[in-house]
């Protein structure tokens, strides 16, 4: 057994951890979907928050790019099929047209394909985590405490939710850039937070699951790579 373990590649263990974690997340979402059918957003948010964090396991476990891209393709294909066949009812029963799950998988695949070969996985993690936690908490705050509504291009949001998106997105972005040694991460964090809040408004059919990760990751890369924030 020890010989078999030593012959496995180093990334096999974190990959197994990703599979286990995703199994737990989807298992919990399915359980919530069955126990609380009147709250379709709850299991969807569990999946949204749970799956986004696998980017950290992929980053810290140094999982190869091809593994992450393949996983994203499989997840995206499953999401597309689920819109016509009820294979993922726990995440698609949201009561409105949305391809957010598919766009989410596409974002993960694109960001891994973009930043893994550059040796800069932190930017991929930044984009996904800004969407994962920023959007998730913004929706929670907006639904529970959002009193000041606004409508832009047919999409209604709350100022409380948008502020949460800006604060969480900027905070996460600044933290990751600071840990990566980017100069003046606070300046970058402010720009990332505002950008995340603006892009999150453009959420027709779940499109924000694509625009927010790609937009914030690209902006962070531009700022960190050019040294803009450091003057």
Describe the structure.
With 231 residues, the protein is mainly α. The protein has one domain (2-230). The protein has helices at residues 2-7, 12-35, 41-52, 54-60, 65-82, 89-92, 100-115, 121-145, 159-179, 185-201, 208-226, and strands spanning 149-152, 155-158. A two-stranded antiparallel sheet has the order 1-2. The radius of gyration is 18 Å and the shape is globular. The model is unreliable at 226-231 (pLDDT under 50).
Q: Runs with pLDDT <50, length 5+? A: 226-231
Helix content: over 70%
* Spatial strand sequence of the major β-sheet: 1-2
Termini separation (Å)? 55 Å
How many domains? 1
Largest sheet: 2 strands, antiparallel
Radius of gyration from the alpha-carbon trace, in angstroms: 18 Å
SS-derived structural category: mainly alpha
Key traits:
231 residues, mainly alpha, two-stranded antiparallel sheet, 11 helices, 73% helix, disordered C terminus
Short summary:
This protein is mostly helical and 231 residues long. The chain has one domain. It contains eleven helices and two strands; from the N terminus they run H-H-H-H-H-H-H-H-E-E-H-H-H.
Lay out the secondary structure.
Elements: H1 2-7, H2 12-35, H3 41-52, H4 54-60, H5 65-82, H6 89-92, H7 100-115, H8 121-145, E1 149-152, E2 155-158, H9 159-179, H10 185-201, H11 208-226
Antiparallel strand pairs: 1-2
């Amino acid at each position: 057994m020890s010989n078999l373990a030593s012959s496995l590649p180093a990334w096999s263990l974190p990959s197994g951890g990703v599979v286990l974690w995703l199994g737990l997340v989807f298992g919990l979402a399915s359980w919530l979907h069955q126990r609380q059918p009147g709250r379709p957003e709850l299991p969807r948010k569990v999946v949204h928050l749970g799956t986004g964090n696998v980017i950290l396991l992929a980053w810290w476990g140094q999982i190869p790019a091809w593994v992450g891209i393949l996983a994203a393709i499989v997840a995206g294909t499953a999401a597309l099929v689920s819109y016509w066949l009820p294979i993922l009812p726990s995440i698609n029963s949201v009561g409105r047209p949305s391809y957010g799950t598919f766009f989410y998988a596409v974002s993960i695949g694109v960001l891994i394909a973009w930043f893994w070969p550059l040796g800069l996985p932190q930017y991929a993690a930044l984009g996904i985590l800004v969407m994962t936690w920023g959007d998730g908490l913004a929706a929670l705050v907006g639904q529970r405490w959002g009193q000041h509504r606004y409508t832009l291009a047919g999409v209604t949001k709350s100022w409380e939710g948008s502020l949460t998106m800006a604060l969480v997105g900027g905070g996460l972005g600044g933290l990751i850039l600071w840990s990566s040694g980017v100069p003046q991460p606070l300046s970058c964090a402010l720009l990332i937070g505002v950008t995340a809040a603006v892009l999150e408004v453009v959420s027709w059919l779940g499109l924000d699951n694509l625009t927010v990760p790609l937009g914030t990751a690209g902006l962070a890369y531009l700022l960190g790579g050019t040294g803009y924030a450091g003057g």
